[in-house]
Amino acid sequence: TRSLLSVFEEDSGNLTEYTNQLLQTLQRVFGAQSEMGLATEQLSRQLLDYEKKNFALGKGDEEVITTLQSFAKTVGELNSLHSGLANQMADSMVFPLIQFREKDLTEISTLKEIFGIATDEHEAAMVKYSRLPKKKENEKLKADMMKEVAYTRRKQHQASLQYYCALNALQYRKRVAMLEPMLGYTQAQ
């Protein structure tokens, strides 16, 4: 069981590391898309500013002004598309992975801690029980220690079952968690 557990824990650790790197990459893509929206908005404003400049030699620039206004309108429309795409990426690409990390991977680490604490308590109770003197007059103390060992064993058993179940479930959830951001990216595009 411990050997198999170490394999699952190693896999869980690798998955955590991978999802951290994947999330950074997805956030970079989202950031680039957001920056593209901001840049096109700035470009649109800059094109409209040409008309407001009073160039000393700019008489007769009506064609240029009209053309730049037309470009500004088109770039403004592109800006709304880039902004919409950035919002879709945030909702369908970045958010699902963040949710997976916060819900599933955090649950694993929490259950691992609980399992470790329960194991430590059980081992401490076993050590205390094994150090009891073997004399007859300690029967009440021995019975109390046996109850404590049994309680910590049940507690450890329950924590281990919850932890093992979560590790098993993670193996199935990770398949969806890895594909969902890419489906979101594709849908947004």
TrEMBL record:
PANTHER family: ADAPTOR PROTEIN, PHOSPHOTYROSINE INTERACTION, PH DOMAIN AND LEUCINE ZIPPER-CONTAINING 2, DCC-INTERACTING PROTEIN 13-BETA. It comes from the Eukaryota. The gene is APPL2_2. Gene3D superfamilies: Arfaptin homology (AH) domain/BAR domain (1.20.1270.60). Residues 1-189 form the BAR domain. It holds the Pfam family BAR_3. This is DCC-interacting protein 13-beta.
